[in-house]
Predict the structure.
Amino acid sequence: SNNGSLPEVVGIPELCFPERDADQLADRLKRVLNLKVSAYDDLVALGLSQAERYRGQKCASGMMSLFRRGA
């Protein structure tokens, strides 16, 4: 959905949809399922890249850096 930080985490605002909107969710799923192989591969690569940004250790290190600067 497009709530909270999900659009930032997903990285593709066009794939986000209003919370509890089943029609919009179905539309987004159809879009992904109908992608050409090359576009799908690009989407997977983007997803893996986004996931790397939010790895636990990386997030924890970034938070500790912010805390140290603020102290």
Observations:
- The radius of gyration is 16 Å.
- Helices lie at 6-10, 22-33, 37-53, 56-70.
- The chain has a mean pLDDT of 88.
